[in-house]
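Running this now, will post back.
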Amino acid sequence: MVSWGLCGGLDPRLRPGDLILGAEVVSDEGSFRADEAVASSLSQRLGSAGARVAVERLAASHAPVRTAAAKADLRRATGAAGVDMESLIAGQYALEQRAPFAILRAVADPAERDLPPLALKAVDSDGGVDALAVIKELIRSPSQFAGLRALAADSAAGFRALKRCRGLLPGLFLGLGAADL
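Update: finished.
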């Protein structure tokens, strides 16, 4: 089980498109450690391909962490380098299935940048962009356009980083039996 996708940056050294290989995911509800053998294999593959990877703790959140101040507070509270909303669930599922667990995330918004308020309304229930909601919010509050443009560029850098990793995942679980998967 690989929790794979974008995350918010909590460590100010991380830039959009930087990769985080999660050592563990933490929250108020508990924590899940990544499988060391799988994480090590993934780290070697990424490193051999020239990717810049930080092996760090991730924090779990039930909602996007919108402000730089809230990101700084979460970093102080957890020691995490990034935050996402899926890895804790993936870790719980992997534990229930007795499956190896790994986390690979690309930073989509840096620690020092606030998300524009419309970002919370821009994503529909399937994870797609609700263009109508974005247009309505921009008409109501055009000052959000600069923040939206920055978020789009940062997210694009994150998606490009993940796309470069795609070819490294096939065969990642070779050597594990069907019972392990």
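The longest strand covers residues 19-27. More later if anyone needs it.
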